[in-house]
């Protein structure tokens, strides 16, 4: 058998990084669509109704896929069920806090605060996943965090207390993303997606019952709101499907800095759709974020000797 050439071996990490970028592009677009759709449905449905419907949409899509699978049981049988339970319980709390932030803060502010998540992922991944920290990865994380601070300007009049809710959500997302990377080693993407929706659906329904809202969605919606509802159900699935596959092809420390690009993207969407015009600090902060991402992309995409 002929050994693979050194050039072919060097090209493999480069090809895997390109896959990470493509999967993360799908993640960015999906999460941005979810944010806009939550804004559209807020005031008609409760946050927990919206999140429960997202779980229902994910299960419907998974059921359709499983019908076509040669061995559906094998696809959804979990390894490390306790890790699944911990991951999804923490993610349930984090996404509820994040969704609340979307209703009380500008979109760019929510996404900017959320991008302290890669810092938490980097810390958790080094200690719990054994990933290594390289100079380009550190640079991307530091510049991303600095860019977020420039956008938020903590200690100034522009700071809002509600931002702390989203900051707590970011810690939860850090745990969720680190455990997602861990689970991809022994679980299929379908398994992770299936148990996320199965565990979180009853949690969302129970939380909705606690706040005293009847779980009956259709009468609350007018025809114009069915489109954002469909977007949440579909993009809620595609966002996590793309994110899980990105973690499958790359280290958590590589994947999460790319997610910083959501800040300028959602800032543009907020400007165009809601007249949330970004000020100079947001633009400068976004430029710093993008610079960090580009440095990391350049370093990770270069063939290694």
Automatic annotation (TrEMBL):
It is found in: Membrane. The chain crosses the membrane at residues 17-38, 50-69, 107-129, 138-156, 223-243, 252-274, 280-299. Signal peptide: none annotated. The keyword Transmembrane applies. One of its GO terms (cellular component) is membrane. Residues 20-152, 163-297 form the EamA domain. InterPro entries: EamA_dom, EmrE-like. Coiled coil: none annotated. Keywords: Membrane, Transmembrane, Transmembrane helix. It is a multi-pass membrane protein. It comes from the Bacteria. SUPFAM superfamilies: Multidrug resistance efflux transporter EmrE. Belongs to the drug/metabolite transporter (DMT) superfamily. 10 TMS drug/metabolite exporter (DME) (TC 2.A.7.3) family. This is Drug/metabolite transporter (DMT)-like permease. It comes from Phreatobacter oligotrophus.
């Amino acid at each position: 058998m002929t050994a693979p050439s050194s050039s072919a071996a060097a090209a493999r990490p480069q090809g895997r990084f390109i896959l990470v970028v493509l999967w993360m592009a799908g993640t960015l677009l999906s999460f941005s669509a979810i944010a806009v759709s939550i804004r559209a449905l807020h005031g008609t449905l409760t946050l927990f109704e919206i999140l429960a419907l997202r779980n229902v949409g994910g299960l419907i899509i998974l059921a359709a896929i499983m019908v076509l699978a040669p061995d559906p049981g094998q696809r959804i049988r979990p390894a490390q069920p306790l890790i699944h339970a911990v991951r999804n319980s923490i993610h349930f709390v984090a996404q509820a806090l994040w969704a609340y932030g979307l209703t009380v803060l500008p979109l760019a502010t929510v996404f900017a605060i959320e991008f302290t998540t890669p810092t938490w992922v980097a810390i958790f991944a080094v200690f719990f996943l054994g990933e290594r920290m390289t100079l380009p990865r550190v640079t991307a994380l530091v510049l991303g965090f600095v860019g977020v601070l420039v956008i938020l300007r903590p200690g100034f009049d522009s700071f809002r207390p509600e931002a702390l809710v989203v900051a707590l959500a970011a810690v939860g997302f850090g745990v969720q993303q680190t455990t997602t990377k861990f689970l991809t080693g022994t679980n299929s993407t379908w398994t992770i997606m299936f148990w996320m929706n199965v565990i979180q659906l009853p949690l969302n329904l129970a939380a909705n019952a606690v706040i005293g809202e009847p779980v009956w969605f259709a009468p609350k919606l007018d025809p114009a709101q069915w489109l954002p509802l469909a977007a949440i159900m579909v993009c809620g699935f595609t966002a996590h499907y793309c994110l899980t596959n990105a973690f499958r092809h790359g280290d958590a420390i590589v994947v999460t800095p790319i997610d910083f690009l959501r800040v300028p993207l959602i800032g543009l969407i907020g400007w165009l759709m809601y007249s949330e015009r970004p000020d100079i600090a947001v633009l400068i902060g976004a430029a710093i974020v993008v610079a960090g991402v580009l440095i990391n992309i350049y370093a990770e995409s270069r063939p290694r000797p």
